[in-house]
Design brief:
Distance between the termini: 40 Å
Strand order of the largest sheet: 2-10-9-4-5-6
Helix content: under 10%
């Protein structure tokens, strides 16, 4: 059974950086795409970034392209989201999602960007 735990969120000023982590378990992590999504207050959950099983194919939402970097360490069953030059509109709860079970969502980690 897929389990996902996100961490690394917090309060940061505009222009700052954070690195989110997501540890997954319960399946063969290295065989599946991993995704980051976010949900801002009052808005629908939206795609942020995705990375394939071996880390060679990566895609970003236009809103974060050039500022966020997704990466993974398969031996540690972990996927990261490095977020730079943060903006107020990046404020959201960030969720990690596994290609193994797309309908499973963890608790998320909250990111608040203050001006």
């Amino acid at each position: 059974q897929v389990q996902i735990v996100e961490s690394g969120g917090g309060l940061v000023q505009t222009g700052g950086s954070l690195r989110l982590s997501c540890v997954a378990s319960g399946y063969a992590f290295g065989n599946y795409w991993m995704y980051w999504y976010r949900q801002a207050p009052g808005k629908e959950r939206e795609f942020v970034a995705k990375i394939d099983a071996n880390g060679r194919n990566i895609e970003y939402a236009d809103s974060v392209k050039g500022r966020f970097i997704i990466s993974r360490l398969n031996l540690q069953s972990t996927v990261y989201l490095e977020m730079n030059n943060l903006k107020a509109e990046d404020t959201a709860v960030y969720y990690c999602n596994s290609g193994r079970q797309r309908d499973y969502w963890g608790q998320g980690t909250r990111v608040t960007v203050s001006s």
